[in-house]
Structure formats: C-alpha cells, structure tokens
Amino acid sequence: MRTLVTGGGGFLGSHLVARLEEEGDDVVVARRRDYDLTRYEDAERMFTDARPERVFHLAAEVGGIGANRSNPGRYWYANLMMGAHVLELSRVNEIEKLIVAGTVCAYPKFTPVPFHEDDLWNGYPEETNAPYGVAKKSILVGAQAYREQYDLDSIYLLPANLYGPRDNFDLDSSHVIPALIRKMVESSDEVVLWGDGSPTREFLFVDDCADGLLLAATRYDGPDPVNLGTGVETSIRELAELIAELTGFEGELIWDTSMPNGQPRRQLDASRAEQLFGFRARTALRDGLARTIAWYRDAVEAHAR
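User: That's the sequence. What structure does it adopt?
Assistant: Structure tokens below.
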C-alpha cells in the first residue's frame, strides 16, 4: 500500500516509517522542510506528490510545559490548521484510511484516573497545554464529522506520553524523560526539576506506540477515540529517581516549586485498544529507559567524534 506519513521524519514518525517499510509498504515521508502543513497550498502539493492510499497524520508542533507556556498561540494555530488541511485533503483525494494521532493533553485537567475515552469532553484541559490539547481534540470532531458526511474512514488514537531512542533532547522544547536523561548524563552536581515531583504520568515506549498505530490501521474502523498506553502510573519524583539510578547520577535533585506541576495525574485505561484491535504495550518503563539512555549516550559519543 502507498502510505503517506506526515511528520515521518520526526520521533514517532521515524519509528513508524521503519515498521511500514518492513511490512512492504511504499512509504512517502513528509517532512516540515518540504511541506508547511499550516499552509493549504503546501498540504495540497504534498498529496499531489505522494498520491497516497493511506495516511498517518503524526505531524505536530509540541513540547514540554516550558515550550507550551512560551508558544500557546502557535501550538493552537499550527496543530489546528495541519489537522484540518489533512482531513480536507484526505476527503478530496478519496484516501482509503486516515489514522490521526491525538494527545493525552486533550483530556480534562481533573479527569478521574484511569482516563476513559468517554471522559474526554467532561472538562477543560490543564491550562499550560490547553491550546495544544484543544487544537488536537478539535481534529477528532472533524474526523467524526467527515466520517458522517463524506464516509472518510478516519480513526483517532490517544497515545500516552512517548519516549525512546531518537526523542527530542533539546532542553528548550523536550519532554520530561529526554530532558532528565540529558541533564543527568551531563551533570554530576545537581539537577533542577520543575514543580514538587508529585504529578503522575504514563509513559509509552515509542516502538509500542508504532505497534498500536499499525494494529489500529488494519483492524479498527470506528468513530470513537482510542487510548494507547500501558496503564501504569508513575510520579515525576519516581521517574527522576529511576533515571538517576540508570544513568549513575549521584548529584542532588532540586525541586523548584515556584514552577508549575502541570496536570496532577495521568493514567489511561487502555482496555478499549486491546478489545478492539488487540493492542497491549510490551515494554516496561525500566527497560525502555535503559534503551533510551544507551541510545542517547551512543549519539553523544558519535557526535563528539
């Protein structure tokens, strides 16, 4: 099958592309340097160039709490426009299947744990990432509307926080795991962390997420959003201590409580994914972190040569 992957040169996209190529797909990788998907003309040219039968929409502008606080307008606009253009052009080009990656940030700030897909509309997202979460959630509305009016076979998945090899380790825009790994590998003295360490998150290894995307693409055709996760809740303090252990960091962890915690708790109910298309995450957090740390150290060493 000829498959287009927006964001295919990015973190999750690169892992998915490798899997698709292993399965024999003719894969077209759409990168930001070639197509600015916030511009309809660029998105239209991408579809014309790619001539896809199937589309995975993974492209996003996203980052950690700091990046979300610095770019609320940009993150709302860019993610909304990219998703709207991909939806409309999938309709125009009569795409056989559209798979959209949403975000756990779309859930309300105080969603009961574990997060069930039916709770998605029961409140407003956590303030620091609300513009991003609302923009991505609006694409779910569009996908359901296009299915109803135009028969576009579009599905919407909600992955937990991703991590793994080839993640973004830029401290200005990275998420918590790559940021902690980089800080602890580079420092022997102290590492400053935002908040008090009490918030919880659920972390999904990137290869497991790619598995979930592929399973959903071949086995699921429904309108309802579906969580992709592990079902395991980990506090930021526990995460920091585990990364310190795995990196050999022996310095001091300093919690800056003047900075925001973000959403208090996150844990997904992943039972719908298992029931509908047989997805179950396979990688334990300790194992995934060890693999990510090893990859980062190898990448730093290779860059230094």
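The mean pLDDT is 96.
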